[in-house]
């Protein structure tokens, strides 16, 4: 049995993982993430669970430089409100939030664009909701951790990400090695 550690980009976690973990580079965005994880889960029965690690943009300055546990995720760019649905909902769903197995932490808004702050979520990124949705479909445990590398509304967010991505990788790897990720 192995735990999958899903990341979008190699830069987010360039180091090898300890025994019992397999790195999956999904690519950026919800579609790429869902396709990559679905392909593996559909063809492999020896998966113990999924951990999503990656960088995220924050809105609160105190979150910058922190490795955060994600309690739940939502699809922040799903907007069917013009069709009478609640924000972040689409047809056939009964709730907007998907709870992770972390149990506590922040709310992460996933979308395919760099998003503005919203009262409904604490951080933003581009893959977690899709990975959580796939894990629901395959009945897999899902844990999620995000390192806040930048303040998403700052003009230099990309430079902040470049300067901090390695710090996040070190923080997550320390936590993984210590056994604090599931």
Key traits:
8 strands; 5-stranded mixed β-barrel; Rossmann fold; 182 residues; alpha/beta; 25% helix
Architecture overview:
The protein has 182 residues and is α/β, with parallel strands linked by helices. It has one domain: Nucleoside phosphorylase domain (Rossmann fold). Helices cover 25% and strands 29% of the residues. It has 3 helices and 8 strands; from the N terminus they run ββαβββββαβα. It has helices at 30-43, 128-138, 157-177; strands spanning 2-7, 21-25, 47-58, 67-75, 98-99, 106-110, 123-125, 142-151. Strands 3-7-6-4-8 form a 5-stranded mixed β-barrel. The radius of gyration is 15 Å and the shape is globular. The two termini are 14 Å apart. 36% of the residues are buried.
Topology:
Elements: E1 2-7, E2 21-25, H1 30-43, E3 47-58, E4 67-75, E5 98-99, E6 106-110, E7 123-125, H2 128-138, E8 142-151, H3 157-177
Parallel strand pairs: 1-2, 1-3, 3-8, 4-6, 6-7
Antiparallel strand pairs: 3-7, 4-5, 4-8
